[in-house]
Amino acid sequence: MHTIGEVAELLGISTHTLRYYEKEQIIIPLRDASGDRRYNESHLKWLHFVIKLKETQMPIAIIKKYASLFQEGEHTAAERLKLLEEHKEAIQQQMHTLYAADQMLENKITAYRVSIGK
């Protein structure tokens, strides 16, 4: 079991973020006898997933919806799948846009190098 501070350090996020995720019911930590938050390995895996979703620009509202569906149970699997498929499609579109921008920049950089003889 990990404390909120340990989890924040392990994941490279703030304790404020963890409290926010709890407030938004994205994660529900366990509590010890003193009422302090405790996180197990399952929580860590879930938080890694949430962080990846955030890194790929999934809106917090969609993450909340996904978390809520997950907490409802297995009968929501099709809805969760749809959310993830839609997000994957958005990521692929982002990747296409970034690749096109990268190619344009590469062409411009090459042109400058040629023009200055570098």
From TrEMBL:
Protein name: DNA-binding transcriptional MerR regulator
Keyword DNA-binding: yes
Keywords: DNA-binding
Domain HTH merR-type: 1-69
One Gene Ontology MF term: DNA binding
InterPro entries the record matches: DNA-bd_dom_put_sf, MerR-type_HTH_dom, MerR_fam
PANTHER family: REDOX-CYCLING DRUG-SENSING TRANSCRIPTIONAL ACTIVATOR SOXR, TRANSCRIPTIONAL REGULATOR, MERR FAMILY
Pfam family, one: MerR_1
